[in-house]
Amino acid sequence: MHLLLAASFLASLGAMAKIALVIGGSAFLVRKRVFNDSHIRALSGVVVNLALPCLIFASILNNFDTSTYPHWWKYPLIGAALTFGTLALSRLVFWRDHERGFTLSAMTTFQNAGYLILPIGEVLFPAQFGKFSVILFLMLLGYMPLLWSVGKFFISHTRGTKIKLSQVFTVPFYSSLVALFLVFTDLRLYVPEIFLSSVEMVGKSCVPLATVLLGFTMGSLHVSGLPSFFDIFRVVALKLLFVPVLMILVLKYTSISSTPLESAFWILEASSPPATALAIQAIHYGGDEKLVCGILVISYLVALFTIPLFYSIVDVMI
């Protein structure tokens, strides 16, 4: 058992190291001003509005059908349940922190659900990445609207900002809905193969581009001193330790997962560090940028080891 656990940990650590090198190298280039904010915005537009929608569209049409995923609806529901469950837990811990409590709750609740998990899934499950990506995109249907509504409110609550539907319903979200409509109506049978192949070709660029974009975003964070150790410790302990342990218990004693791939997916989501979108929200809509950016940097460093740890436990023991 110990040898299997060690082998699984080293394999997943190697996968994380490959991704960390890309992220770290991209962040370094931004720090050295090889790339600036305009480059980052341009790459973000390409990933969010072109590469990711193409990957979602092609993955769903090529890999999703109701016979393979008879309970497909559970993925967005479980994703939303994970979000609300973690939010309730964080509010219990941070309810006394009147000034920072909402921000700390957002950092604990909303994980990097896509841009980090996609490359990890591609490295760990190259033969099953199509199925892995379908599960991810279905989960995002329940997660993304919450990130850009509840998450935004918690990050910028002091400014009294309002939720805009244009921020909740994005191009990737619409891409998922269109692809699902074509599947459920069997209209995908009439989608020209040459069109789908072209979309798939563009979609294959999403994972490397998204990984570079994550590095660019991390490199562009303005960390002017770290938050207090107490704040960092509480978020890291809850987000990267306690929540994954709870997910392991859920996976072991419930039937939410029916395959090893699903179990791996849910533990990767539960152990993922906070979403970099929270820093974008704090900067753009008003929030505690120092607190958010400082915790983000520390969380990603810790996650380099905690993600392989919890993945290996699930891989071997569940």
Describe this structure in words.
α2 runs parallel beside α8. The chain has 14 helices and no strands. The chain has one domain: Na+/H+ antiporter like fold (Up-down Bundle). With 318 residues, it is mostly helical. The mean pLDDT is 91. It is 76% helix and 0% strand. The protein has helices at 2-31, 37-63, 74-94, 101-109, 117-124, 129-155, 165-168, 171-184, 193-203, 206-220, 229-253, 260-271, 277-285, 289-317.
Entry summary:
By secondary structure, the chain is mainly α.
- Count helical runs: 14
- Average predicted confidence as pLDDT: 91
**What CATH architecture label applies?**
Up-down Bundle
Decide which structural class fits the backbone. Answer: mainly alpha
List the helices and strands and how they pair.
Elements: H1 2-31, H2 37-63, H3 74-94, H4 101-109, H5 117-124, H6 129-155, H7 165-168, H8 171-184, H9 193-203, H10 206-220, H11 229-253, H12 260-271, H13 277-285, H14 289-317
Keywords:
about 325 residues; mainly alpha; Na+/H+ antiporter like fold; 14 helices; about 0% strand
